[in-house]
Amino acid sequence: MTRPPEPDPERPDPERLAPRPVRRPPVDPGQAATFGRPQGVHGAFDVLHAPDSTGGRRGNANGAANGRGNGTGALPLAPPPPESLTEAFSRPPGAEDVVLQRPHDDDGRARGRDGADAPLWSERADPWRDPAAGAVLAGPAVATEETPEDEKERPAGALLSLPELLFGRRVKPLALGLLAVIALVVGAGGGVAGWWLADRGEELTGELNIAEATAGKERPAGSISDIANRVSPSVVSIEVKSGQSGGVGSGVVIDPAGYVLTNNHVVATAVKDKQAKITTVFTDGTRAEAQIVGVDPKTDLAVIKVPIANPVVIEVGKSAELSPGDTVVAVGSPFGLENTVTEGIVSALNRPVTAPGENGEPPVTFDAIQTDAAINPGNSGGALVDSRGALVGINALIRTVSAGEGEGGSIGLGFSIPIDQAVRISESLIRDGQVKHADLGVNANSVAANTSEGAQVQNVNPGGPAAGAGVAEGDVITKLGDRTVRNAAELTVAVREHEIGEVVPVQLVRQGRQLTVDVTLGSD
Fold first, then answer.
1. CATH 2.40.10.120 segments of the chain
2. Structural fold of domain 438-523
3. Quick one: average pLDDT of 463-492?
4. What's the pLDDT at 386?
5. DSSP state string for 145-211
6. With bands split at pLDDT 50, 70 and 90, how would you rate the model's confidence at 206?
7. In this predicted model, which residue has the larger pLDDT, 57 or 109?
């Protein structure tokens, strides 16, 4: 086994790093003067010095040998105090031997001024005080038996008078009297003001005394209220629902079997859609589903039937007995507002009106009763009754003005189908389920708009009644039977006043000449 070679002190160990060179930056003179050792002190600790008999300070042997300190071998002394402080805090002249504590004997015990031993405390002093203490500052703070000053009984003072108690000082009697007068005046004024306010308050509030009528309001027979009470139970609201759409109108019960007369356009949706549902609503809230009996699109009439036992039936009058100016009352459900009653007069009779047909059907034309009783959408199919409450018409149309995108309302021009014509058509619908009208066999237009010059024939149906009588295209019909024809609508209603197969005289104008021909009316 071989030993490793001895390290060569001359050659550095390659595995060790050489020591880092010591860096000694230069010392700032200012910092050296502030933080450096005092002059003559070379170590971290210096020897202590004691004052010598000469008033200086002497060091120990080592300090003298080493020569530390000032020129005498001691640290420099503090500078003497200022003369002002010496004069303020030094003993006065002649009192150099005066001390705060008593002089001591050789054995360390304090003695009195006369040299005799004197106790440092009296009987009232603290017995536990050290008798060898060098100074006595004061006696112990113990309670005395003397009565405190605040507990001593003081002599009673003079009692305060009323002015002094109220005002804090004396007041002259005259001032007191004047003050009392002022207080009396203020109190009296407040009382008067309170009485006045209370008296005025009774005029605004108080107990309500109502003078009640001795008897109820009289409603004589024939009044509007009496008519409404008798007619309303026989007028129903008709709701038609088809899918997500629907409409509302009115109807009149005309037969105890549950037959209800209304307008064709009220139930037209149900006629087209067999899945549609018709519901009638009576004034007492009873709801019943209705079925269509028959419709007449040309006169805008329809009959439906409801399964109600003993319904209230309206009394039917005669429209032929009406005269312009007669009072009439309209009952129905305008805009779905059930049992609405409006009053008016008969504005005109035998007023031919025409309206577009429903679902592509032919135009509606009938001889109407014109009234200024308010009629609005929803009144259709409702009742128009006279001053007796008898049914004289079925409300059907209104003339209105444009209301933008909305639906117009009543402007005092309402039209009803005369009940004489409506009853005749309803009988045919109930009996046969359909109705036939007399027909002339021509298509005609008014000679000019808004004129009363007659109805001009546009074409003649081959083989029809007019063709057989010699009526030609271009002829202007001015009269049919006993009725003057002013326009195309009036020609239609004049023909329908007659029965099928009836022979009626027709007066016409052809190339400036007036002719009269007899026409045997056919069926439509």
1. 224-432
2. Pdz3 Domain (2.30.42)
3. 90
4. 92
5. SSPPGGGSPPPP-PPPPHHHHHHSS---HHHHHHHHHHHHHHHHHHHHHHHHHHHHHHHHS------
6. low
7. 109
- Model confidence at 191: pLDDT above 50: yes
Distance CA 377, CA 370 (A): 16
The residue whose two tokens read 């060098």 is 134
Whether residue 456 contacts residue 475, with contact meaning beta carbons closer than 8 Å, is answered with yes
The H or E element spanning position 417 is: strand 414-418
Quote the CA–CA distance of 21 and 33 in Å, as a whole number. 27
**Most confidently predicted of 25-34, 81-90, 320-329:** 320-329
Q: Which residues are 236's β-sheet partners?
A: 251
What's the length of the chain? Answer: 524
Would the pLDDT of 509 be above 50?
yes
**pLDDT value, residue 279:** 93
* One-letter identity of residue 21: P
Which of 73-87, 94-108, 240-254 has the largest mean confidence? 240-254
Tokens 């007369």 belong to residue: 261
Report the catalytic residues. Answer: 265, 300, 380
CA dist 227 and 50 (Å) reads 142
Determine whether 224 is exposed, middle or buried from the number of CB atoms within 10 Å of its CB (0-12, 13-18, 19+).
Answer: middle
Burial class (CB in 10 A: 0-12, 13-18, 19+), 399: middle
161: pLDDT confidence band, cut at 50, 70 and 90?
A: low
DSSP letter string over 113-155? TTSS---SS-TTS-TTS-TT-S----------SSPPGGGSPPP
Structure tokens at 423: 């009853």
The single residue listed with the structure tokens 């149309």 is 397
| Location of each CATH 2.30.42.10 domain in the chain | 438-523
CATH class for the region spanning 224-432: mainly beta
C-alpha 178/C-alpha 226 separation (Å) is 81
* Residue 411, pLDDT score: 82
Spatial CA neighbour of 132 closest among 114, 158, 111, 149: 111
pLDDT digits (tens, 9 = 90+) for 402-451: 655 456 677 888 999 999 999 999 999 999 888 999 999 998 888 877 77
| Pick from 456, 452, 450, 440: nearest CA to 493 | 440
Taking Cα atoms as reference points, which of 320, 286, 276, 285 lies closest to residue 418?
A: 320
In the chain, the N- to C-terminal Cα span, in Å, equals 148
Model confidence at 363: pLDDT above 50? yes
User: What is the CA 209 to chain-centroid distance, rounded?
Assistant: 39
Confidence of residue 35 (pLDDT cuts 50, 70, 90): confident
Measured distance CA(209)–CA(212) in Å, rounded: 9
Q: Determine phi and psi for 163, rounding to 5 degrees.
A: -60, -40
Instruction: Give the integer Cα–Cα distance in Å for 375 and 357.
Output: 20
CA–CA distances in Å: residue 292 to residues 84, 307, 360: 136, 12, 20
